[in-house]
Write a structure and sequence with these properties.
There is one protein chain. This protein has one domain: ACP-like (Non-ribosomal Peptide Synthetase Peptidyl Carrier Protein, Chain A), CATH 1.10.1200.10. It is about 50% helix and about 0% strand. It is built from three helices and no strands. Helix 1 packs across helix 3. It is globular, with a radius of gyration of 12 Å.
C-alpha cells in the first residue's frame, strides 16, 4: 500500500469533516459528491471549515465555499493554498 498523497489525505480530512456535519456515512461522501447533495446549512459549513482548519493548521475563507461545486473542488483549493510535502 502506498502512502496517501496530499490530495488523498486532504480528501479524507474533508470527508471526515463533512460526515460529522451532515451525519452521512462515509461511503456516501467522496471527492465527486456535490455539496448541494449534503444539505449543509451555513452553520454546518462553518463547522466543516473549522474542523479542516484545525486539522490542517490553515485558514479557509468561507467566502470561497459557494465557488465549490464538489468535494474535489474544495480539496484542490486546500492543496493549492496549503501544500504539504511527502
Amino acid at each position: 500500500m502506498q502512502p496517501a498523497t496530499g490530495t488523498e489525505s486532504t480528501v479524507g480530512i474533508v470527508v471526515n469533516a463533512l460526515q460529522a456535519a451532515s451525519k452521512m456515512p462515509g461511503t456516501e461522501i467522496d471527492a465527486d459528491t456535490p455539496f448541494d447533495a449534503l444539505g449543509l446549512d451555513s452553520l454546518d459549513v462553518v463547522s466543516v471549515l473549522s474542523a479542516i482548519e484545525t486539522c490542517l493548521g490553515i485558514y479557509v475563507r468561507s467566502l470561497h465555499m459557494p465557488a465549490f461545486d464538489r468535494v474535489r473542488d474544495l480539496v484542490g483549493y486546500i492543496d493549492r493554498v496549503a501544500p504539504r510535502g511527502a
